[in-house]
Specification:
This protein is about 0% helix and about 45% strand. The protein is mainly β and about 300 residues long. A hairpin with a 5-residue loop joins strand 7 and strand 8. A five-stranded antiparallel sheet has the order 1-24-23-22-21, with no helix packed on it. It has a single domain, classed as 6 Propeller (Neuraminidase), CATH 2.120.10.30.
Length: about 300
């Protein structure tokens, strides 16, 4: 049985009929935040409820990278190759320096504690962009239940450390990704906990370093768009309730990779950034594609 659903013939060129969806590891509680370290030949990802950052090394398997992890969620790498992490438990964004020490990049805004930083990307100018929904403080499952002090915003941190709320009209911003040329920013809004909010992916044009709304780009169904990534041709790949969806730059759904668990997040990796790593509820999956991811090594 094929793991692909082709809705646009062009998607047939993106997938390889003899490349199977592989379950690389399972038995976790809720996995998130995959990031590929090409120079180390490994993938890092979070098991949030178990307070761990795990490492998957092809040919070796799973090991623990950091425990406790302060209930880390999303991760990325900066232009110097350092790990940048969103931590629910400490309500902060951190950077792991090359010597292993940890630097706090942001934990508050205008004197108030952040909610629970969720996902993060680094732009080529060195600015760090992250989403701050309230999911990690809504219960004790993915962190610590706490009062919400700030709206659920998207923030930009300049290289000099200045932090700014650049998008303030979201219910709960979640995954985010820049287009390959960084002229567009995509942000998934998954809605507030216990509320029946609309859920969709919005698109913004980047003008003088600031995002300008271009409206709703795409609505995922079934499920919601959580983690998102672009490939080098500007197609957007998104988590969904039935797997991973590939969305063309004009917003139409091209096809799906069907996954037997609810997908939380994705990233491209492997020797040519042609493998898609998928975190899905209790398991880590991977599939080889005829695509190349738009991200740092």
């Amino acid at each position: 049985m094929s793991c692909f659903e082709i809705l646009d013939p062009a998607f047939g060129r993106f997938v390889l009929g003899n490349a199977a969806l592989k379950q690389l590891a399972t038995g976790f509680d809720w996995v998130e935040g995959p990031v590929w370290f090409g120079d180390a030949g490994c993938l890092l990802f979070s098991d949030i409820p178990n307070d761990k950052i795990l490492r998957y090394t092809p040919g070796v398997g799973i090991s623990t990278y950091r425990a406790p992890s302060n209930y880390s969620n999303g991760h990325t790498r900066d232009r110097q190759g350092r790990l940048v992490s969103c931590e629910h438990g400490t309500r902060r964004v951190t950077r792991t320096e090359l010597d292993g020490s940890i630097t706090v990049i942001a934990d508050s805004y205008q004197g108030k504690s952040l909610n629970s930083p969720n996902d993060v990307v680094v732009k080529s100018d060195g600015s760090i962009w992250f989403t701050d929904p309230h999911y990690g403080i809504g219960s004790n499952y993915e962190g610590f239940a706490a009062d919400q002090e700030l709206p659920c915003n998207v923030y930009r941190i300049d290289p000099d450390g200045t932090i700014e709320a650049v998008l303030t009209d979201f219910n709960c911003p979640n995954g985010l990704a820049f287009s390959p040329d960084e002229t567009l920013l995509y942000v998934a809004d998954t809605g507030r906990m216990y509320q029946d909010d609309p859920a969709h992916i919005r698109r913004f044009s980047m003008e003088s370093g600031r995002p300008k709304s271009l409206g709703i780009f795409h609505t995922i169904a079934p499920g919601k768009g959580d983690g998102i990534r672009c490939d080098m041709d500007g197609n957007l790949w998104s988590s969904a309730g039935d797997g991973v969806h590939c969305i063309a730059p004009d917003g139409h759904l091209m096809g799906k990779i069907l996954v037997p668990e609810k997908v939380s997040n994705i990233c491209f990796g492997g020797r040519a950034k042609h493998q898609l790593y998928i975190t899905a509820t209790t398991s880590l999956y991977a599939i080889t594609l005829n695509r190349v991811g738009a991200q740092t090594p």
